[in-house]
Design a protein that fits this description.
The chain is mainly alpha-helical. It is built from four helices and two strands, in the order ααββαα. The relative contact order is 0.06.
């Protein structure tokens, strides 16, 4: 079955589904959406959409609390490599 046929049949199932089925489908879709790979770490391991959100929030909190390096500090550190 082609993609368009699958979409049509799935839409038909959803349009006639009971609440229990809809909740199951919703959970599957949410789990899939959160497991989408959006990038990779330096070691090649995948970064999921959910992990990226968590990392971005943590980084934002570190910056707000003053826990970061300035450009000058980074440049000095690089000179010592």
């Amino acid at each position: 079955m082609e993609v368009q046929g699958l979409r049509s049949e799935i839409h038909d199932f959803i349009n006639h589904a009971d609440e229990k089925f809809l909740k199951m489908v919703y959970k599957i879709i949410k789990a899939h959406k959160n497991s989408i790979v959006v990038g990779y770490n330096a070691d090649g391991s995948p970064i999921t959409q959910e992990e990226l959100k968590v990392r971005a929030k943590a980084a934002s909190m570190r910056v707000k609390s003053g826990d970061y390096f300035t450009q000058e500090e980074v440049e000095k550190e690089i000179e010592n490599w």
